[in-house]
Automatic annotation (TrEMBL):
GO terms for molecular function: DNA binding. The keyword Nucleus does not apply. Belongs to the AfsR/DnrI/RedD regulatory family. Residues 1-93 form the OmpR/PhoB-type domain. This is DNA-binding SARP family transcriptional activator. It comes from Kutzneria buriramensis. GO terms for biological process: phosphorelay signal transduction system; regulation of DNA-templated transcription.
Length: 491
């Protein structure tokens, strides 16, 4: 007899499912099986079965479920037993009766076989292991506790199992099988470092160089959108290593080189926010500056600096406007956080230029080392192109100057706490100053935050006091809005 929890909770024998009672009893069995040989308190069981809303008779219901479950197991001739301890239950079953335990054992055997070089044996173990997953674990149980369990089982067992199988298929040279397996687990794990590494390695080994390059650009954009920066050091090093191996192979065997597919233009703008309020005057001013530059066809790059104190909303305003005009820049949108006033050191312009050139499809091997050389190549690539470049949180003009394109069709949008006078003097930058939010705008933002958190209406007098306390800084409004427990007279 075999217990199944990797899917709906079942007891199976000879290929058929045996009757185990009602849904709640099967759910209880699943929780006990997940912790077999371990003491599970009645409080834990009630939380697992009913979340934080157990019925008044929860303890009696639990006792009844256990009693009926014991009877059902005995009637099926099952040797597993449920013991009662002080305010707890323990289920004892043979390890080889439970699918999760089988999965762990098969995965361990596969790892040992791979280490010994027996990759075919490792593959057999792993295919047998993943066949045990018949659906979401504990599928009969629909509580938040069960959702957390499913997430843990996926992250610590199913996903590593699939990743190990992908590695084994890569070892065996079965690149298409490895890619199919990666497609199976991509949903929900697109930005998992191991999944990205495996796909890059497989595409490179298979000689799919155009797809390799396209996938790297896609991952680069997605990590910037999700985290505000590109892939981490580990992935960047792997990417460089694979490119080096590719170049070496192509130099020895030129016939393996493939014509790269055209890559989509960069779209690096981070997401904007939903609860944006005010700034109508500044957005209109930005639009006017752009319209004038396009109408007069000025021969230089349009540079606009959005300036203001910390927390006044420079970045959110810049991104709000940038998203609204991005379709006017077919060459793409580039974004860099210069970290002028972050806790970490400011970004090096040379490093940013390297990232921009990669985003513009310049092969890594063709990117020069020096800042001046990179800047010259950057201007050459964008010559005659219409691109939008957002340089966020600049410390001073010296950080910006190397990043300026020479193309008249480009727009550079800068945010900074300073006026950046050298940028205006030398390059004609236009400045748009951001003042604090007006009182009505502060109140609107508070109301939007309350609506999102479904709070009851707040006392108008107290709300006005909070608006005054924020000093018109959107960041302060958000911090206050997200910590209602600290508010006086606003609970």
């Amino acid at each position: 007899m075999k217990f199944q929890i990797l899917g709906s909770v079942q007891l199976r024998h000879g290929g058929r499912q045996l009757r185990l009672g009602r849904a709640k009893e099967r759910a209880l069995l699943g929780v006990l099986l997940l912790n077999h040989h371990k003491r599970v308190t009645t409080d834990t069981l009630m939380h697992a079965l009913w979340d934080h809303n157990p019925p008044e008779r929860a303890h009696k219901d639990l006792q009844a479920y256990v009693s009926r479950l014991r009877a059902a197991l005995r009637s099926q001739g099952c040797t597993a037993e449920i013991l009662t301890q002080h305010h707890a239950y323990v289920l004892h079953a043979d390890d080889d009766q439970l699918d999760l335990t089988q999965f762990k054992a098969l995965r361990a055997s596969a790892e040992a076989a791979r280490r010994a070089g027996r990759v075919d044996e490792a593959a057999r173990h792993l295919y047998e292991a993943i066949e045990l997953w018949q659906g979401p674990p504990l599928a009969d149980l629909h509580t938040s506790w069960a959702e957390l369990v499913r997430e843990d089982l996926d992250a610590y067992h199913r996903l590593p199992g699939y990743q190990l199988l992908c590695s084994v298929e890569l070892d065996r040279g079965n690149y298409y099988d490895a890619l199919e397996l990666l497609d199976t687990i991509t949903s929900g794990h697109e930005l998992d470092t191991r999944c990205i590494s495996l796909r890059l390695s497989t595409l490179n080994a298979a000689g799919h160089y155009a797809e390799f390059d396209s996938y790297w650009k896609h991952i680069y954009r997605r990590t910037v959108e999700a985290f505000g920066t590109g892939p981490g050091r580990e992935l960047r090093q792997l990417h460089q290593q694979l490119l080096f191996e590719r170049d070496a192979l192509i130099s020895e065997h030129p016939a393996v080189a493939s014509v790269p597919a055209p890559l989509p233009p960069p779209a690096q703008l981070p997401p904007t926010i939903d609860d944006f309020v005010g700034r109508a005057e500044q957005l209109s001013e930005l639009e006017t500056l752009l319209a004038q530059a396009q109408l007069t066809r000025q021969p230089t790059t349009l540079i606009i600096a959005i300036t203001g104190g910390p927390g006044v909303g420079k970045t959110t305003t810049a991104l709000r406007w940038a998203h609204g005009i991005r379709d006017r820049f077919p060459a793409g949108q580039l974004y860099a956080d210069l970290r002028g006033y972050a806790d970490t050191p400011p970004r090096d312009p040379g490093e940013i230029l390297g990232e921009f050139l990669q985003a513009l499809a310049v092969p890594v091997g063709q990117i020069p080392a020096g800042v001046e050389a990179r800047g010259g190549l950057f201007r050459s690539v964008l010559a005659g192109q219409n691109a939008l470049i957002v340089l966020d949180d600049a410390q001073d003009s010296s950080q910006i100057l190397p990043l300026l394109p020479g193309a008249s069709g480009c727009v550079v949008l800068v945010t900074s706490r300073h006026r950046l006078a050298p940028l205006a003097t030398r390059h004609g930058a236009r400045r748009v100053a951001l003042p604090p939010l007006a009182q009505a705008e502060r109140l609107d933002l508070f109301r939007m935050i309350f609506a999102r958190s479904r709070r009851q209406r707040t006392d108008p007098v107290a709300l006005s006091g909070l608006a005054d306390l924020s000093a018109g800084l959107p960041l302060a409004v958000r911090l206050l809005g997200e910590r209602p427990s600290t508010w006086p007279r606003c609970r």
